Amino acid sequence: MKIFHVSAECYPAAKVGGLADVVGSLPKYLNRLGHHTAVVLPHYAMPFFEENAFEKTYEGILQLGGFEFSFEVLKEQTNQLGFELYTIAITELFDRPKIYAYEDDTERFLSFQIAFLNWITATKQKPDIIHCHDHHTALIPFMAQNCLAYNSLKNTSTILTIHSAQYQGAFGAEKITYIPEFDETKSGLLEWNGMINPLASAVKCAWKITTVSPSYLDEIIGYASGLENLLRWEREKSVGILNGIDTEVWNPASDPMIHYNYNTSSFELGKNKNKEFLCEQFNLNSENPLFVFIGRFVPEKGADLLTEACSTALSQNAGEINILIIGSGDTDVERSIQGLKNFYFGNYNFHIGYNEKLSHLAYAAADFLLMPSRVEPCGLNQMYALKYGTIPIVRRIGGLKDTVLDMGDGGFGICH
Ligand code: GLC
Known about the structure:
Elements: E1 2-6, H1 18-32, E2 36-42, H2 47-51, E3 54-64, E4 67-76, E5 84-89, H3 91-94, H4 105-122, E6 129-133, H5 140-146, E7 157-162, E8 191-192, E9 195-196, H6 198-205, E10 208-211, H7 214-222, H8 228-233, E11 238-240, H9 267-281, E12 290-297, H10 306-316, E13 322-329, H11 331-339, E14 348-352, H12 356-365, E15 368-371, H13 381-387, E16 391-394, H14 398-403, E17 414-415
Parallel strand pairs: 1-2, 1-6, 2-5, 6-7, 7-10, 10-11, 12-13, 12-15, 13-14, 15-16, 16-17
Antiparallel strand pairs: 3-4, 4-5, 8-9
The structure holds alpha-D-glucopyranose.
């Protein structure tokens, strides 16, 4: 089958979270199963795009209400990722160093989706499946089915994978003119709670909905997303499929990003060597058990709970444990994470920012991984931890519930 994955993130080109890891590896394995899978991503001003060769394969114009943008479709030349990577360059909107968090994100991602549909219609491509990920690409199912310009895609199967139902990309109804011409009687397919809601629209229009773990599907049908009634209504076409991890990238026996490779028989030595190496860099005592947190500082991940929890644990076990926090996000959380260092110097440290290499090393070096997530659609970190012999301490929710078996039940994690 010919499958297009359309996404805002794809590792290693552009990553904020686990969405990138999934979109950066699933297509490779689909290709090995005999499918023809490509990923389509916006062309950002980020290192991967500058360091790799891309060739222009198409250029066109897109209309966003009264605005007009020219765009180019570029193809990464080497297929180094194990699949074809196409990027859509819309200079005014995406020639920027970050993926999200701009005021015009609605305009940016809607333009990206329109450019994608313009391109495949103009070049008469007939994918068997268009696979969309999260709200940034969630208007594609509606547009493919209903916009006059995309009539040739009317019967193309579409899938939406929900990696996070917290973010739905809703915007005001006055921007309905952004969407290429369609039969107005269909506008209800865009609407949820008085707004145009891309995620809700895809739940209505996509042929299939998947969530990244079975438990998360139950959770968002039951509560917590604002889309409960809609998801309940569309339950029949929805399925929870647990993410996997790419063990060609995440394998302590071959991982080039860690200090010392190890396998199940050299496990103790390997973990100790990595721990000594990491502890030295962060001025921690490698004799102590090492707890790490790796992730985004957002409420879903429970990052705001860390400061108090760390300070209690470090006070109660004075000098006997180490904690290392790696991540970035909410500035108040960043500040309080930084502030703790003054009180627990030598047993506590942090790295503010996203650093792939350091994360790999931390999984290899740590004894425990902390995941106090309030919401966790799947979670990959606990699976990386298990692969590296690190005990995940998690909340019993979403994908964590589906992947971490508590030690008390014969597993290798701690699940509360
Ligand atoms: C999002 C979710 C996370 C999931 C990842 C990949 O980042 O928060 O739970 O593992 O997407 O699906």
